[in-house]
Write a structure and sequence with these properties.
2 domains, three-stranded antiparallel β-sheet, Arc Repressor Mutant, subunit A, alpha/beta, 454 residues, pyruvate-formate lyase- activating enzyme, globular, nine-stranded mixed β-sheet
């Protein structure tokens, strides 16, 4: 069936709604400065070291600025700023390790950015050696890194293989030349193909591709061609993100406006066109991911073990995510903590022996309850409210008002409610964020600070 035919006109307002991506709950706009270094010290000191941990390292440097980017990054024409940054990053790691009540075990290690593949092979090995000094890795742990194919070298691929990297994620975005020029990211198909070949030659076999819809000059034909190229290169997973145009946060994004950006209906057509081809080759995962049938993410979906965190959909079940680097966000069972975004303030704090915490949020019992509901909707497209309430020791009647608000979505076919079980139909997958937002007790105070649902 043509998926275009499944979208009803009455759904359009929900697909255009400004709602969070729910990589956390509550979401980052609600963080405040009441969470300090002292708060995080206490969290780290109480960490259950019998459970595996997850570690995220933020490398905030790029050699060129892509106009669509929403990341915290610094453009550098030389490698000179990177080495002192790594010194400070490893110093932050040491500060954290000092506060943990024992030696940790890692189930997931992820290098993000910026452009973490900008690290030289020697520096990458140095970081990995520092991590191995402080942590052990559990069996079948995942070590992953985000890669920009521009400037990628065989020596970097060799370093990843030697260090035991298990998965690479390549920022493709779009293969069309006109689109690449508009977004200031030129990387021909052959460049991406050579990157994939180098990684696989060195044993980094699972490779993810990131694609974006909603960019200037994209057409249904061009985006499906990009998907076909992705399939041809054998991507194991694909993330299909909607471009988030937030020029009030990232002023340089206004450069895209002179090329013209697709409106909501055009964005929807692009998303549906790409999804149709992707679903011929991959299993749809949650809102915007796709994976091969035997991939660990697909198996986690089937077993209802899929999770969602600041990196998006994941198989990582660790309850503690330690994030290092400017703007990086850590997550624990007690709350969230975000580092200073300003590179100088981040560095100064670490030099003074303090964790560089800028803001965060302490989770209430209601936050934990609703976080589980929203995560299950975003991952499983279904939640048993009675079961979740029982797990948290509360009466499911706490959700009565939410069920009332769901009635409009149910009448329009975006949700199915049977007693306490809420299900998002497969054809309403793109409205997932709008359905989840019904259970967001914080949303009204953060409305308007998010990108459109599609």
């Amino acid at each position: 069936m043509n998926s275009h035919a499944l979208v009803k006109d009455s759904w359009l307002s929900h697909l255009d709604a400004r709602v969070p991506r729910y990589t956390s709950y509550p979401t980052a706009p609600h963080f405040h400065k009441g969470v300090t270094a002292a708060t995080v010290n206490s969290w780290l000191e109480r960490t259950d070291m019998s459970e595996p941990l997850s570690l995220y390292l933020h490398i905030p440097f790029c050699s060129k600025l892509c106009w669509y980017c929403g990341c915290n990054t610094t453009i550098t024409k030389t490698y000179a700023p990177v080495r002192p940054y790594l010194e400070t990053m490893l110093a932050e790691l040491s500060l954290i390790v000092e506060r943990l009540p024992g030696r940790g075990r890692l189930s997931h290690l992820h290098f993000g950015g910026g452009t973490p593949s900008l690290l030289s092979p020697d520096d990458f090995h140095r970081v990995m050696d520092a991590i191995a000094k402080h942590f052990d890795f559990v069996d079948r742990s995942e070590i992953s890194i985000e890669i920009d194919p521009r400037g990628f070298t065989a020596s970097r691929a060799k370093a990843y293989g030697e260090a035991g990297v298990t998965r690479a994620s390549i920022g493709v975005q779009d293969f069309d030349t006109e689109v690449q020029k508009a977004i200031h990211r030129i990387q021909p198909y052959e460049m991406v193909a050579k990157t994939v070949e180098a990684l696989r030659k060195n044993g980094v076999m699972p490779v993810n591709f990131d694609l974006i819809y909603g960019l200037p000059y994209q057409t249904e034909k061009s985006i499906t061609e990009s998907v076909h190229a992705t399939v041809k290169l054998g991507a194991n997973r694909v993330a299909l993100f909607g471009y988030a145009h937030v020029p009030w946060m990232k002023k340089y994004q206004k450069a895209l406006e002179r090329h013209g950006l697709p409106d909501m209906r055009a964005r929807l057509r692009l998303a549906l066109a790409a999804r149709e081809v992707l679903e011929d080759h991959y299993v749809p995962i949650g809102l915007d991911h796709f994976a091969l049938s035997g991939d660990p993410m697909t198996l986690a979906l089937n077993d209802r073990q899929l999770r969602r965190n600041f990196q998006g959909y994941t198989t990582d079940s660790a309850s503690t995510l330690i994030a290092i680097g400017p703007s990086a966000i850590s997550a624990t069972g007690w709350g969230y903590a975000q580092n200073e975004s300003d590179l100088d303030l981040w560095s100064q704090s670490i030099a003074e022996g303090r964790l560089p915490v800028h803001r965060g949020l302490v989770l209430s019992a209601d936050d934990l309850l609703r976080r589980e509901v929203i995560e299950k909707l975003m991952c499983d497209m279904q939640v048993d409210l009675e079961s979740v309430a029982t797990h948290h020791g509360v009466d499911p009647a706490v959700f009565f008002d939410d069920l009332d608000r769901l009635q409009t979505l149910e009448r329009e076919g975006l949700a199915i409610v049977k007693e306490w079980i809420v299900t998002i139909p497969a054809e309403a997958r793109l409205a997932m964020r709008s359905v989840a937002s019904v259970f967001d007790a914080w949303l009204s105070s953060g409305q308007g600070r998010h990108a459109a649902a599609v």
